[in-house]
Every structure is written in structure tokens, then in C-alpha cells.
Specification:
The protein is an all-alpha fold. The chain has five helices and no strands.
Length: 148
């Protein structure tokens, strides 16, 4: 009988200790979350611009594949030469040269619609090469733009 009582007492003690620890950890979690404020990620001007260019190039890709009219060069692409970057130190000579090259290649698509597929793939190449060296960026996603 004495052994049963001791075993019962030990079981209750163990469970009550576990309960207190989990209660304390919940309390500390709520304190930590109340001390930290939620910060929403804000894309830089360059990130937003590149997202817009990606979407525009998806549409352009579809038009080239379907043989539709290509339309005119979107002037907002020129903002790549001065848009504010997430890391301002990334806006260096390398980036400026690649941005200029990208603009020239992108314009060729609209100027020479007969060879639009080749010019389009060259523009995608320019994006990939820059991203491989600079920020890494969404290279896999960019490569999906290629017209095979």
C-alpha cells in the first residue's frame, strides 16, 4: 500500500512539474511576441520594377510565341538605370553596364519583330548573367522566360 501511495505521489508530482513548465513557456512566448513589432517587408523600387518587367516579358513572350503583334517598347523599362535598389552599393559600374545592355537588347525585340524570338532570348540571357553575378535573384524563374 505504501508503494502505491509513493508511486501515485511521484506521478502527480511529475505531471504537475510538466504542466508548470509548459505554462511558463507559453507565458514567455507571449511576452516575446508582444515585445516585437511586426514589420512588413517593403520591396525596393528596383525590386518592384523588375517584377513589373517580368510580368511584361511574360506577356511579350506569349505574343511572340503566338505570332501576335509585339507593340511598342515600354518606356518604364528605362527606370532600371536609376531605380533605388535594396542595397545601394549594388548600383555600380557592372550593374550600369548590364542595365544598358538589357535595354538595348529589349529594344531590339520591338525594332526587329522578325527576329523577336532571338532578341527576346538574348534579353533573358542578359538578365540571367547579371543576376548570376549580382544579387542572385530569381534565376530559375527568369530562365522560364526563354522561348524554346
Amino acid at each position: 500500500m505504501k508503494i502505491k501511495f509513493i508511486a501515485f505521489f511521484l506521478i502527480i508530482t511529475v505531471f504537475s512539474c510538466n504542466k508548470k513548465q509548459s505554462d511558463n513557456s507559453e507565458e514567455s512566448c507571449s511576452k516575446e511576441s508582444s515585445n516585437k513589432s511586426f514589420e512588413m517587408y517593403k520591396m525596393s523600387e528596383m525590386s518592384t520594377l523588375m517584377e513589373q518587367m517580368y510580368v511584361d516579358n511574360q506577356r511579350l513572350r506569349s505574343r511572340i510565341i503566338e505570332g501576335d503583334t509585339i507593340g511598342g517598347f515600354p518606356d518604364y523599362f528605362l527606370k532600371i538605370q536609376g531605380a533605388e535598389m535594396t542595397d545601394p552599393t549594388e548600383y555600380d559600374l557592372f550593374f550600369k553596364q548590364h542595365a544598358d545592355r538589357f535595354i538595348k537588347l529589349q529594344k531590339k525585340i520591338y525594332l526587329d519583330s522578325i527576329n523577336a524570338k532571338a532578341h527576346f532570348n538574348s534579353a533573358v540571357d542578359a538578365c540571367v548573367k547579371c543576376h548570376e553575378t549580382k544579387c542572385g535573384g530569381p534565376i530559375t524563374r527568369i530562365k522560364k522566360l526563354y522561348i524554346r
